[in-house]
Amino acid sequence: MVIDNRRAVVWGSALLIAFVQVVGSFGAARGQPDRLDIDAFAVVLLLVGPLALAFRDRWPLVGAAGPLFAADVYLARGYPYGPIFLSVIVGLVSAVLAGERRRVWVVAGLGLVGYPLVAHVIDGPNPGLAHLAAVAGWLIVILAIADVVRTRKVEAAERSRRRASDERVRIARDLHDVLAHNISLINVQAGVALHLMDDQPEQARTALAHIKTASRDALQELRSALDALRYGDERATRAPAPGLADLDRLVESVRAGGLDVRVDIGPGLGPLPKPVDLAAYRIVQEALTNVRRHAGARTTVVRIRDGEQLTIEVLDDGRGGAAGEGNGIVGMRERATALGGTLDAGPRPTGGFAVRASLPLPVRSP
Fold it and tell me: What is the DSSP letter of 24?
C-alpha cells in the first residue's frame, strides 16, 4: 500500500493540534473560574477545528471556516479561552498560502461578525466593542503575516522559474551556436572529402579527420546540454566554457573549411570575466558560421580590442546581408544585451557584411 506523505503530514498535524487544544483547554480552564466548565459539547467544539484542518490540503476554505465556526460557538457559549485559537491560525494561514487570499478575508470577516450574533442567539456572554476590536486586530495581523509569507513564496517560485527559463535559453543558445558551427564544418569537409577521395586521398583523409573532430565536439556539447536539462547544473558534467583563449582552434576549424580568416587582436588584452569571455567567443563563432553558410565570402577579418569595453568586429567580403535577421544574429544580440552591451549586424557600405559587438568590462584598478 502506497502512503501519501503529504496526506500523512496533514492528518498528523491535525491530530497533534486536536491533542493540544483539548489538553491545553483543560489546563487553561483552571485559571478562569468565571468561564463555563469544559463539558462534552466543549470537547466536540475543540475537535471540530482540527477535523476541518485534516482536509485543508484539498479544501482550504473548509480548513479556514471550520475552526472559525467552532471558535465562535465555543467562545459564545462562555467556555474558557485557550488553545482553540491554534486551529484558527493554522486554518487561515494555510488557506492564504493555498491561494485563497480574498475568500479567506471574507471568511474571517464573517467569523468576526458571527461571534456576537451566535452569543446573542444562544444567550451567551456578550462581547463588548473593545473585545471585538481586539479580535479583529488579531485576525488582521494573522492574515497580513500570511499574505507576506505567501507573497515571498510566490516571488521565490517566480525567481526559480525565471532562472530555469534563463538556463534553458542559455542552453538552447549554446546548442545553436555549437551545432550550427560544427554541422556546417562537417558539411563542408564532407564535400571536400567526396571531391578528393579518388584523386587526392591524403587531403580527403585530412577532411575526414576534421569531420571526426567536429562531430566529437558537437556530441560532447550536446551530451553536456542534455545532462544539464535532465539533472540540473549540480549533477551535469560540463566541459570548461570556451573563451577567447580558444579562438585559434576555432579559426583553424573555419580555415579548414576553405575560408580565409584573419585575426587582429589589440595589444594588452588581459584576462576577461568569464561571462564576457564566453559571450565574445560565441559571438565570433556564430559570426564565422554565418559567413561560411550565407555570405559566399573569400576573406573574413576578426578584430578584437580591449578598453573600457571589449569590442568585437567580424567583417567579410561576401554578398552582404545574405544571412538576414535569423536566429544566429538574434542569439548574438541576446548575448550582448544580457551583459549590458550592444550588437549591430548588417551590410557594409563597401560590400560584405559586418557584425560589431561591444561588451562592457569592469573598471580595472590603475
Answer: H
Q: Could you tell me the three cell numbers for 209?
A: 579527420
Q: Mean of the per-residue pLDDT values for the chain?
A: 84
What's residue 268's pLDDT?
Answer: 75
Query: Which residue in the block uniquely carries the three cell numbers 500523512?
Result: 8
What's the full length of the chain, in residues? 366
Alpha carbons 38 and 74: distance in angstroms, whole number: 10
User: What pLDDT is stored for residue 1 in this prediction?
Assistant: 43
Q: Where are the domains of the chain?
A: 5-127, 242-366
Helix (H, G, I), strand (E, B) or coil at 1: coil
CB of 343 within 8 A of CB of 333?
yes
**Cβ-contact 257, 291 below 8 angstroms:** no
DSSP conformation class of 291: I
Q: What is the pTM of this model?
A: 0.57
Coil, strand, or helix at residue 36? Answer: coil
Q: Which amino acid is at 283?
A: I
Pair type for strands 309-316 and 299-306: antiparallel
CA distance 112 to 131: 11
Kindly provide the residue ranges of all beta strands, DSSP E only, lying in the chain, ordered along the sequence. Answer: 260-265, 299-306, 309-316, 342-347, 353-360
Question: How many CB atoms lie under 10 A from the CB of residue 124?
Answer: 19
Are residues 242 and 278 in contact, defined by beta-carbon separation less than 8 angstroms?
Answer: yes
Of 55, 124, 66, nearest to 92 (Cα)?
Answer: 66
Cross-strand partners of 262:
301
Cα–Cα distance, 339 to 275 (Å, whole number): 8
Task: Report pLDDT digits (tens) over 46-69.
Answer: 999 999 999 999 999 999 999 999
Grid cell, residue 86, equals 491554534
Q: Provide the pLDDT confidence category of residue 16 given band limits of 50, 70 and 90.
A: very high
Architecture of domain 242-366: 2-Layer Sandwich (3.30)
